[in-house]
Amino acid sequence: MPDEALNDLQPWDLSPVVELLTVSSEFAAETAWTSAQPALYERFPQDVWTATYDVNLYGTGAHSNLYNNECQQAFKSWLEDHGVDVEAYARAVGPVQYVSIQLHLNTLLERARGNKGWRVRIIHFPALQIVGCGLASHYQGTQNHNQMGEASSRIRVRALEILTGTNKAVLEEFPSATASDWEERGLMEHPVLTIGPLDISSFDDGRGAKLRFIRNTTVKKELATFFALRGMTLRDFSDGRGASTLERLRDVAIELGSPTAS
Amino acid sequence: MSNPFSDLGTFEDLRLAALSGSESYERYRRRDGAQQRRNMANVIQLQLASRVERMVEVAIASSRAVLLVGPPGTGKTEILEQIIDRIDRDPSRYGFSTEGISSTWVTPEEEWTFEKVVLGETVVDGAIESIEGDLLQALRHRQWLILDETNRADMDRVLGGVLTWLSGKRVRVGLWREPGASPMPVFLEWTDGSAGGVRRVAEPASLEYVADRNWRLLGTYNAIDAQRVFRMGQALSRRFKHVPVPPASTEEFERIIAAHVSEESLLPWLTTHVTALYRAHLQTSDAQLGPGLFVDIPSYVEHGLRMSQDHERPQESLASSAAIEAGSESDLANSDQATRGDSHLPESASPSTNATTDLLEELLAEAYLISVGNLVAKYEMDLLEELTKSIADLQALSPANVAWFVANLQSMRA
Q: Fewer beta carbons below 10 Å: N end or C end of chain B?
């Protein structure tokens, strides 16, 4: 059995990664990254992969926009009925919109950090404690999220033509991103009944939060670039599902990035 | 590159095509598919040619005279061109001591004679003067002489006078005449050194054309080009090393021809039928042809089909307009496609209707006729019958189109 396969049999402690995903500031992220990076390289060896991260903070006026526009009338009314004003909602949502980790194949790294190529990507929305894992390309400023979503669907179909065996079966479990993911509850396997500390279990008969309640327009584009995406709770991610998901995505990415695959 | 995910550039091509809408993406997919098939065909052709190329390289490195022998369309000339170019870039690797390789290519013709190729005469101001033929000129300029399609001329007659020289011996080929001088004998000879060219010997007066160790006589030869072939006699033939260039197998051909089909919807039909035509030739002794003669057939059929549909388009547009008024969504989509004048064949191009199939079969027969008809027209009647029976048995052409093909050969014989 190859060393890597043996390594995969050992438990993979993702707690440093979870720590990074749950930071509340860029400064905290810098500190957390020093532990998260070696944890990632345990299963994504540095001679094959390069890991990077981003912390996306809500900008000025972003919380107000969420409260007044993205929350839609029904949820806004619920918030108002429960005495949650813009400031209180901003405190509940918190300062960090998302934390993202990218794992690039070194063979595709040269210009891949920003606007080239594709990568394994983890994206966490702290306000909902939802983690999306998958394979993503990138977007450029003027590109529309709906068009990008259609493109991701086509890219996924092409990827399925390349992959074989187990890796193909794995990708079949990861649909490409759709409006349901960036507008509704596509990333949530179960209702998310809290936004930060705010209990919203009485909203909409317990159907829980929608992603749009806590995300701005950029996130729509970010998510639309995922040509393979599955959501899970942060708890599931840290309880082992994150590790197994990332290992499976790693294997898919290695086959997909191989010049001999066709 | 068959896997767009393994390279940033090709992935970006995929991403941008995927972003640009379904029609653009479908065009990208067709191009990508055609490119993949072309890549596969190139690999097959390289695999096919690699051993042949090695034989040609070694034969040229080790022998004074080499012929590539095979049916038409097997790429003999291209192989020879590539290998001479390769040797030119690194002569020492092949044991040559020149800085590069200079060559002169000539295509023999039926009326060729010894005088045209070796030593001829002409009359200037009433006096007889000698003129160098292609061989002597090549030796003078220390250029390799390449005879492309040697079967076009009676090489026994043309080179009969230099047979002895070709086997490595000195030979007298005639007299050199020029105004104001006595005629002097002309000799051909070889040297193991590298001092080839022409030298005028004073005593006794003579001209010596010397082929040095770096000089070569090369050629291609279609042994099966019936009727027009001047079969090379044994005496001349054994002076050359013969490297066979066989036609591709039908399996290899199937992948080669797939690379030449642009329309995905026509891929199965064209591949099957053109391969069947190729197979018919391959399995008919003396009718074998190489893939090169068949590769333009798909393009003819695709163009023919597209032009036929363009003629019908005005009626389609009227029908679509009516559909738009009726508010049919799917017809709106069709109308949209028609209005944009999309350059690829629509779904209806796939051979799903009798009318389309009839048209495709006619176009195929036409493409086959214009691609190989000039060769087939020269077949003996029994060979033609054997071939057309094979074509019919393999259902490469419909019986009506076989008959049409044969009838049209008559005018090609004229």
A: C
| Nearest Cα residue to B360 out of B303, B414, B320 | B303
First-to-last alpha carbon distance for chain A, in angstroms, is: 26
Mean pLDDT over residues A144-151, rounded?
A: 90
Kindly identify which residue of chain A lies nearest to residue B36, measuring between CA atoms: A262
Confidence grade of residue B74 (pLDDT, cut at 50, 70, 90): confident
Distance CA A224, CA A232 (A): 17
Instruction: Tell me which of B195, B219, B239 is where a domain ends.
Output: B239
- Which of A147, A148, A158 is nearest residue B4 as measured by Cβ atoms? A158
Range of the domain at B33: 8-47+248-412
* DSSP tally for chain A: helices H, then strands E: 12, 7
Q: Is residue A219 part of a domain?
A: yes
B78 and B205 inside one domain: yes
Single residue among B205, B239, B273 that ends a domain in this structure:
B239
The minimum CA-CA distance between A168 and chain B, rounded to whole Å, is 14
Give pLDDT tens digits for B317-340: 434 433 433 333 333 333 333 333
* Phi, psi for B164 (deg, rounded to 5): -65, -40
Closest approach of B3 to chain A, Cα-based (Å): 5
Domain boundaries, position A153? 3-256
Residue A262: inside a domain: no
Residues of chain A neighbouring B15 (CB-CB closer than 8 A) = 137, 151, 155
B157 and B39 share one domain: no
Residue B270 Cα, gap to closest chain A Cα (Å): 24
Phi, psi values for residue A111, rounded to 5°:
-120, 20
Does the pTM of the predicted model rise above 0.95? no
Domains of chain A: total:
1
Tokens representing B270 are 């064209």
What are the beta bridge partners of residue B77? none
Q: In this structure, are B344 and B388 located in the same domain? A: yes
Total domains, chain B: 2
A208-257 pLDDT, tens digit each:
999 999 999 889 999 999 999 999 999 999 999 999 999 999 999 999 99
- Average confidence (pLDDT) over B117-138: 90
The span from the CA of B378 to the CA of B227, in Å, is 6
Of B3, B21, B25, the CB nearest to A261: B3
- Domain match, B77 and B103 both: yes
In a domain, A261, yes or no: no
Q: ipTM, 2 decimals?
A: 0.90
Considering only CB atoms, which chain A residues are within 8 Å of B21?
A: 147
Q: Which residues of A touch B36 (CB under 8 A)?
A: 262
Per residue in A186-218, pLDDT (tens digit) is: 999 999 999 999 999 999 999 999 999 999 988
- CB spacing of A262 vs B36 below 8 angstroms: yes
B167 within a domain of the structure (yes/no): yes
Arithmetic mean of pLDDT over chain A: 91
- CA–chain centroid gap for B402, Å, is 25
> Among partner residues B7, B14, B22, which is closest to A155 by beta-carbon distance?
B14
